[in-house]
WRKY domain-containing protein
Amino acid sequence: MEKGMDWEQRCLLDVLTHGKDRAKQLQKHLTSSLSTQMGFVLVDDILGCYEKALSVLNSGALSETKSAVTMLESPPSVANSTDAASDQKEVSKKRKTMSTRTEYVKASAGTPQEVPLDDGYCWRKYGQKDILGSKHPRGYYRCTHRHSQGCLATKQVQKSDDDPTIFEVTYRGRHTCKQSSHLAAAVAAALPMEAESMEKPEQPEEAMLNFGTGLRVKTEELETKEEIFPSFPFPYSSNELEEGGSNIFPESMLENEIMASFPSAFVSPVSSESNYFSMSSCHVGSFGLGQTSESDLTEIISAPASVTNSPDLDFSVELDPNFSFDNLECFS
DNA sequence: CGTATTTGACCGAC
DNA sequence: GTCGGTCAAATACG
C-alpha cells in the first residue's frame, strides 16, 4: 500500500496543482464578469482544498487529510477494508458501532469566526476541550433530542490550525430523531429501514454539500461492514481534468454536478418524482445572496458520485410534498 | 422559569 | 500518567 502511494501522490500533486491553477483562472474570470456568488464560494473552496491537499502532499504528513485525499483517487470500496487494518494509528481508538465522518467546512468570506455551522440539525454543546497539538479547542455537540428521542448523534467542531476559516466537523453516529427541521427528517423517514443493526445509508446529511460554507467531507465508516460515502464534490480523475481543455470548472458544471448527481443517485423507481425534492432547486436558487443569517440553511444534497459503484446502496428517497421547508426551527 | 452554554471534574482508553 | 470524551453544576440567556 505504501508503494502505490508514490505514484498516487505524484498524480495527485499534478492534478491538484493543475486544478488550483484553473480554479484561479476561473476566479479571475468570475471577478471580472461578476457571476453568481456561488461561483466565488466554490472557487474559494476549491482553492482552499487544493492548498490543503498540496501542503499535505508536500510535507508528506497528516494522515488525516491524506485519507480524505485518497478518496479522490480510489473508489470507495477499496479504501475501507484496508483502512481498518493499516490506518490504525489515525483511528487508534475507533469506537465500534459508531460511524465517523469528518467534514472540512470552510467559512465563506466575510463570515464571522463563530460560524453557526448550521447543518440542519439541532445540536447542543456539552463540552469543550483543548486538544493537544491544536491551537483551538474542540467543541462537543450532541443532538438536542438525545433524551427526548434517544438520538445518539454527536459532532465535534474544531477550528483548523492554520486556516482559521476552516472548521473540522466530525460527525458521529447517526440521527435517529425525527427533526422537524430540515429535509433530514423527511429523508430519514423515507429511508427503507432505519434499523440500528443495519448499516444503511447513514444520515442523509452524509451526502450533503454544505453549500454556504461547505468544503470537504471525509467519511470514515468504522462499523462492522464499513461502508464509505465519499461525497466528493469534484469526483474527477486526473484524466478527466486533463481532457477538460479550455472549459475547466465552468460554473454550469459545478451547478450541474450537484443538481445532477443528486436525483440521479437518490431517486429510485418512485412514481412521484415531480415533487421529489423540489426544494433542492429552491435551495440553489436562494443561494448566493451573500446573506448568511444564522438559520440560513444553504445545504443541498449531493449524492456521492461514486455511489453507483456500490450497487448495494440504493437510496430510495422521496419527499413529502407537504413538507414545509420553512420550518427550520429547532423546536418541536 | 425553562433551556442552552460554560467549564471543571470525572472516566475510560492508551 | 496523559489525553480525549462526557457529565453535570453553575451560569447565562430568552
Observations:
- The two ends of chain A are 49 Å apart (CA to CA).
- DSSP finds nine helices and eight strands in chain A.
- The longest strand of chain A covers residues 100-106.
- Residues 74 and 266 of chain A are 22 Å apart (CA to CA).
